[in-house]
Design a protein that fits this description.
By secondary structure, the protein is mainly α. The protein is built from 6 helices and 4 strands. Helix 2 runs antiparallel to helix 3. It is rod-shaped, with a radius of gyration of 39 Å.
Length: 276
């Protein structure tokens, strides 16, 4: 036995080694309680660290995509508002086109109605020309296609393209020709305005359908963010109840290890009794 050997106090060395080990464990648990993470660096759990960071990267991409979906909805909401306003203007023009053909109206009255129609047509041009967002045209007479990034990858489903059309000053054509004569509107103008109204309704419906698709995309991406965050939490986040329990256990063991070290250091003093 090593009881009477003072050149190497093995019991003391073992006690000191255990005490150092307990101190390292205490530092780990204190670090986890301070950061809220079970894995703070790769050396603690390399596999869990790699998975957690990979999932975290994916989650950040989904969060950006979610914001871009909301941005796309905002853009299309602006387009739909413009299309709705143009539909209202067309409906007002339709009323006046029908009214101006009343045979009981005087020439002056027809001229007044024609002036009102011209003003409404000008306002339609203004509404159409104002279809911009952040300095970019988002709708035009020929249809403006905008590709929205709605995913974090490079697949075809990560991009969503919407083509939006409105009446603008560049699309004069048939609408501009309505009530163009001094005498006022003709029966053919009613057909023309009805066609324009139907086209406008179709444009609004297309925009509404695109917004509805974006609503579904937003729901899917939100679920993806939630699920990926749950996976990351499983690998990375600390269980505070468990960590506190382990910390208390280590603190108790640290005290007993300190007492054992003190006792082991005093053991070689028994050798002095041999010289009395």
């Amino acid at each position: 036995m090593d009881l009477f050997k003072i050149g190497s106090n093995t019991a003391s060395m073992n006690a000191l080694r255990n005490l150092y080990s307990l101190n390292e464990k205490m530092n780990v648990h204190q670090s986890r309680l301070a950061t809220g993470k079970r894995v703070n660096n790769a050396q603690e759990d390399s596999a869990a660290f790699a998975v957690a960071k990979s999932v975290e990267t994916t989650t950040k991409g989904y969060n950006v995509s979610l914001q871009q979906v909301k941005n796309a909805k905002s853009v299309l909401t602006i387009v739909e508002a413009g299309q709705q306003k143009q539909l209202e203007l067309l409906q007002s023009i339709k009323e006046k086109v029908v009214q101006i053909q009343d045979a009981t109206l005087t020439s002056a009255q027809r001229t007044s109605i024609k002036t009102a129609i011209d003003q409404l047509k000008s306002e339609m041009d203004v509404v159409g020309d104002q279809m911009t967002f952040n300095g970019t045209t988002v709708a035009s007479c020929g249809g403006t296609g905008i590709a929205f990034r709605v995913g974090a990858g490079t697949g075809s489903n990560d991009s969503f393209t919407v083509t939006s059309s409105v009446y603008t000053s560049a699309s004069s054509g048939s609408i501009t020709a309505i009530a163009s004569s001094a005498a006022g509107a003709t029966s053919g103008d009613i057909t023309t305005i009805d066609t324009a109204i139907n086209d406008s309704i179709s444009r609004i419906a297309n925009t509404g359908a695109a917004i509805e698709r974006l609503n579904h995309k937003e729901d899917v991406i939100s679920v993806q963010v939630q699920n990926h965050e749950a996976v990351r939490s499983t690998y990375e986040d600390a269980d505070f109840a468990l960590e506190q329990m382990e910390l208390m256990k280590v603190q108790i063991l640290q005290q007993t290890a300190t007492a054992a070290l003190a006792q082991a250091n005093s053991a070689p003093q028994l050798v002095l009794s041999l010289f009395r």
